[in-house]
Amino acid sequence: MIVDLPDTTTSRISKTLVKIREEGGAVALGRVLTLVISTSLGHEEEAIEAANDASREHPMRVIVISTAAADSPAKDATRLDAQIRVGGDAGASEVIVLKAYGDMAQDEEGLVTGLLLPDAPVVAWWPGEAPEVASASPLGRIAQRRITDAAAQSDPRGFLEHLARTYSPGDTDFAWTRLTLWRAQLAAVLDQPPYEPIIAAEVHGAADSPSTTLIAAWLELQLQLPVLHEVTPSIPGSSGIHGVKLDRASGTIELSRSHVNIVTLVQPNQPVHDISLPRRSMRECLAEELRRLGPDDLYGEVITRGLLETVDAPDNAEARSR
Prior knowledge:
This protein is an alpha/beta fold. The chain contains ten helices and 14 strands. An eight-stranded mixed beta sheet has the order 1-4-5-3-2-6-7-8, with helices on both faces. Strands 10-9-11-12-13-14 form a six-stranded mixed beta sheet. It is elongated. The termini are far apart. The C terminus is likely disordered.
C-alpha cells in the first residue's frame, strides 16, 4: 500500500502512520532499527530497493530524505511532500519518503526526529554524495552507525584520506564492506600449510577503486610489512580490485581477477582454482552493515592507521603515478 501526502508536515505523517497501524494491524511492531537514507531528488528508488531487500533480514523503519543536489539551480518553494509505503511495497519494513524543497531541506534532523522508532538504534546512510564530516552532520549526530560510499564520490581516494582524518567510532564505508569476501579468501589461503611468513605483498586495482586502497592498508596492518599498491588497467565490465600477490619462501600466492565474477587462485605446488567472487551488491553491503550496530573496530584501525601509512609510502606514490 502506498499513501501520498503532498505538501504535508511531520505531524500529519505521524498521524497517518498511526491510522494505518490501527486499520491494518501492528505494522511497526518488531522493527529493530530506524534506517535514515539521505539522497538527492530523483535518486531514491535504488536505495529504497536495497533497503527493502535488507529489511527481510533486518525488519526496520526506513526514512528517506530526498533533497535537491547542492549544485541544483532550481529554487523551489518551501514544502514537504511525503509518501508512506507498507506491505508489499516495502518488503519487511515500512518506508517513509520525504521530499523536501526550499528552506525545508535545510533541517534534515528536524524532519526525521518525530518519525524515529522509540528506543531503537538509528543508522544513517548516504548512498550518493556524503557530508563533509558524517559524524558532525545533522543526521550523523543522531545515528549510532553512519554509512558512506567512497566509490560514489567524485574523488574516491581523496575521500578515503578525508575519512581517515575525520573518523569517529560508528563510521563505516561500503568500500570496506566490499572487501569481506576478499579478506575471507586471503585468510583461508594463509590458514593452510606451509604456514610460512609473508615476506612481500602487493595489490593491484583500478585507479578509481577505494577498496584496493583499503585492502592494501588492511594487509599492511595484519602482515606488519609494506604493501605495494599499484594501479592497473581495468578489466572490461569490472572495476575494483584486480589482484593480490603474497610472497613466501616457498613461492608466490596470487589471487587475480580473470573475469568479471571470477578470480583465479595460484599457489605453489597446488592446482589452479577458479573461485566465484562477484562484486557485492548494494543490498548485500547494506545487510552486512546492519548486522553490527556498534563501532567496527577493525575498520577504524585500518582507516586511521593502515590507510595513511599506505597512502604516504614512497613506493606506493610511485606506483600510483604509473
